[in-house]
Amino acid sequence: SNVLIFISTLFILVFPATVEAREGGHISDNSARALYLTAFFLYFFFSTLPKLGLMCLFQSMVAQVENGPRVFGFIAIVAMSFDAIVVMTLSVLFNRMEFKNALWVTSFVYVAHGFLELVFGPLLVLLPMEKLAEAAAAGTTDDTSSMAAKNHSTPESPVPEITPQAEENVGSYRGRMTRPSRLDAADSYYTQ
Fold first, then answer.
1. Per-residue DSSP letters for 34-86?
2. Which of 33, 44, 34 minimizes the C-alpha distance to 11?
3. pLDDT mean by block of 10 residues, the chain; 192 residues
4. What is the reported pTM?
5. Within 10 A of 46 (CB to CB), how many other CB atoms are there?
């Protein structure tokens, strides 16, 4: 997935190159629009799947870490703060530089980010292969064993039975859900 993110950042280079080509008279306005659209599409095509995978990975990491929601909540605040700093810096850059040069600088920032993620991303997120092999050989994963430890049970614990009291409560809930509402009364009034 880190390779896909790096590839997606390379498509950002199309934007300043297209501006250069259009200003130089090498391509028409419609060709420039087509290149912009294609670059946007390819950027999001290659970067969306890794982002979704990272979100799923973070959810499992939160479940495995003690005080996970607090830790990752703090990480989210720090990441949002860095995003805001980058956006403000790029805004200042666009105000102080010629548009074309600011686009080149922005593109290289994206490519540098993609390169850093390509090189350091696996080291920060993935478990060592030996640990994955040990978990697979043991027949359990860290996720299952950590959830069992939190519940003070084994992963193969029996499922509790539904008591008559619980069934009665569900029945009363279903009864409230099927009670006619004002909309049903209004509907019958207008259909007469």
1. HHHHHHHHHHHHHHHHHHHHHHHHHHHHHHHSTTHHHHHHHHHHHHHHHHHHH
2. 44
3. 86 93 93 93 88 75 75 82 88 89 90 87 62 58 47 51 59 47 50 52
4. 0.55
5. 20
